[in-house]
Amino acid sequence: MAIVSQSSKFGNIMRPTMAWVVGLVFFFPIFWLAFTSFKTDADAVKPEFLFFFTPTLDNYLNMAENYDYWRFAINSVITTTFATGFTLFVGVPAAYAMAFNPSRHTKDILMWMLSTKMLPAAAVLYPMTFLTKNFLGVFDTHFLIIIVLSLINLPIVIWMLFTYFKEIPKEIIEAGKMDGVSTWGEIKDILLPLAWGGLASTALLCFIFCWNEAYWTVRLTTTEAATLSKLIEGNRAPEGLFFGRLSAVSMAAVGPIVVLGWFCQKQLVQGLTFGAVK
Amino acid sequence: MAGLTIRDVVKAYGEVEVMHGVNLDIDDGEFVVFVGPSGCGKSTLLRMIAGLEEISGGEISIGDTVVNEVAPSKRGVAMVFQTYALYPHMTVYNNMAFGLKQAKTPKDEIDRRVQQAAKVLDIVDYLDRTPRALSGGQRQRVAIGRAIVREPEVFLFDEPLSNLDAALRGQTRLEIARLHERLGATMIYVTHDQVEAMTLADKIVVLRLGYVEQVGKPMDLYNKPDNLFVAQFIGSPAMNIFNSKVDGKTVSIGGDKSVGDLENAPAGDVAVGIRPEHLIACKKSEAVISGKLELIERLGDHIIAHLIRDDNSEFIVKTEDFASNSKGDLMHFKVDADRVHYFDKESEKRIS
Ligand SMILES: Nc1ncnc2c1ncn2[C@@H]1O[C@H](COP(=O)(O)OP(=O)(O)OP(=O)(O)O)[C@@H](O)[C@H]1O
Ligand SMILES: [Mg+2]
Question: Quick one: pLDDT band at residue B1, thresholds 50, 70, 90?
């Protein structure tokens, strides 16, 4: 008994400590970014001014003056929202079908979908740019970004939804069939109310992934559909100058999503652990 | 109201066939119980009737309609699941009303039916709760209520009581029997439980490995099992099976006396079946079989005794009392000649 209580006492101290350490390590870049955004460009590169400096709002004022932050922000909101919506619109019925009417190939399809994530994005950079620019004429449009973001996130979204739907007893869906509910009614009246938590965390995660996506949004846009990722990219000076300004821009870009994530922590944790911590 | 006809029904999952041409007639208003060991296809057959499982071959008719291609909700059947399968996010009232709403039943009609079913099942007080806030027994009653309100012609139950404790199981069993009496609907009921099968059924269907082994009234199955499997499956504890010596037509199983005469006994061996409750303690000179008392299970109103014979084979006796016998005693038993069952050892079929 003594050993058990001792080790659990040890655990009681160790676990929160570890959590804090890990948390701080992960939070440090944001923290550093926030600090830097209030420094002058000169102070920003001097290590001795890491914590002690005279804060200034210059970077933010400068950004507001020189860049059309809101245009980028609105593009981000539009593409992210529609991409998330479209992904769920396709993902929910797909995951529903795979969870409740599996065929012999369902497992293969799931694996295949995951395998698409193994393709290095850079490999298709040229064809993508060429096709969208010269062939389809959709380069730098909201439409293109929405489709691209949707396709990138569909596999993970379907996987997550599939896992949640799998947890719903098959008999409940069958009871619905006995009660004469239509397929759409099955999804709307039975499946979604039961998988609400899972659906919310999947949507949230998809939203975050879309918002943060940089590889394609930077390369497939110029101005019209340019998102906040593009704004950051545009401020990245090769010589490593203008750190202060870059930080301010970055803060303005990641700020909304960090705040959103903060408020939805519970949903997210539940979503990412697939309900493992119950 | 409607009966059911099942003709040459086959079920295959991919290459694997699990039901092999089942034939069965169920009369209107009959209470039919499917029994059989785990994996024999009870649920599969029930689910094919419900429409939850595709019928790979053959035909199922309800009333005069072949229902192979008819949607579950259009077959006039309602199902009660072992796990209740209530909608967790709906109140008890809405759980029962859901099916009627789908069928566009008028609101006051829905209300009338739900209230009436709730009264019959004694769940009026819980109508506003969600299933989460109910006990297992209450949930089961809601599940039955959900079936009743749809006023189906055929009720399907898949082991509806197996998640309840013994007392509640007995009580709910009675309620189902009463319900059958009151509604007069056809009911098909899957169970593992001997007592449920024997007490509820008008007709028992014994299944094994996707085949129907025997169909009959409970007491017919008990008194005249068609084969060794049914003989040992129906009745608890299971029937004792002994090897026998056939001398002309006289059959004996090792005791001083023969168990009986068998006209036209087959050339091969004969298996003799005697139910534990039909063996009666007696003097050695009257005995058909003897054994050393090895274990006594006292169950209050009766005793189950395990005995070992000289050749180390075991048999069981069920009796009201063994007065003074204790472990190790050699005991002798007789049996009424008309309580003895004979089976062909090769085909496992009943003889005579
Ligand atoms: N989806 C499936 N794919 C392949 N085989 C299946 C499937 N469902 C059931 N089976 C097989 O069909 C047979 C009958 O199963 P079923 O569930 O009807 O048995 P059961 O008599 O209801 O058993 P239990 O008493 O354990 O409920 C079993 O051998 C089972 O392995
Ligand atoms: Mg079953």
Answer: low
DSSP result, B140-199? HHHHHHHHHTT--SEEEEESTTTTS-HHHHHHHHHHHHHHHHHH--EEEEE-S-HHHHHH
Asked whether the beta carbons of residue A178 and residue B72 sit closer than 8 angstroms, the reply is yes
For B282-317, the pLDDT digits (tens) are 988 899 999 999 998 888 888 999 999 988 899 999
Q: Tokens representing A243?
A: 């750190």
Q: Do A175 and B50 touch (CB under 8 A)?
A: no
Convert the pLDDT of each residue in A182-232 to its tens digit: 989 999 999 989 888 889 889 999 999 999 888 888 888 888 888 888 888
| Tokens found for residue A115 | 């395998």
Query: A68-273 falls under which CATH superfamily?
Result: MetI-like (1.10.3720.10)
Cβ(B41) – ligand 1 distance below 6 Å? yes
> Per the omega criterion (within 30 degrees of 0), is the bond before A16 cis?
no
The residues near B141 (Cβ < 8 Å, ≥ 6 apart) are B121, B122, B123, B172, B175
pLDDT attached to residue A240: 58
CB contact under 8 A, A178 and B86: no
Radius of gyration of chain A (CA): 23
Ligand 2 centre to CA of B81 (Å) is 10
Cα–Cα distance, A26 to B306 (Å, whole number): 69
Neighboring chain A residues of B81 at a CB cutoff of 8 Å: 171, 174-175
Contact A179 B73 (CB under 8 A): yes
Q: Determine the CATH number of domain B242-351.
A: 2.40.50.140
Please give the ipTM for the structure prediction.
Answer: 0.86
Number of H helices, E strands in chain B: 8, 21
Residue closest via CA to ligand 1's atom 3 equals: B13
- β-bridge mates for residue B296, sequence order: B305
For residue B82, the CA-to-ligand 2 centroid distance in Å is: 9
Global pTM reads 0.83
- Same topology, domains B4-229 and B242-351? Answer is no
Residue spans of the domains in chain B: they are: 4-229, 242-351
Question: B212: number of CA atoms within 13 Å, CB side?
Answer: 18
Class of domain B4-229: alpha beta
Q: Tell me the torsion sign for CA atoms B191, B197, B202, B204.
A: positive
| Residue B217, min C-alpha distance to chain A (Å) | 30
**pLDDT tens, A36-61?**
888 887 777 777 667 777 788 888 88
Q: Specify the DSSP element, H or E, that contains B281.
A: strand B280-281
Closest protein CA for atom 22 of ligand 1: B43
Distance CA B308, CA B292 (A): 5
Contact B82, B158 (CB under 8 A): yes
Q: Are B244 and B272 in contact (CB under 8 A)?
A: yes
Residue A2 has pLDDT above 60, yes or no: no
Question: Touching check for B14 and chain A: CB below 8 Å?
Answer: yes
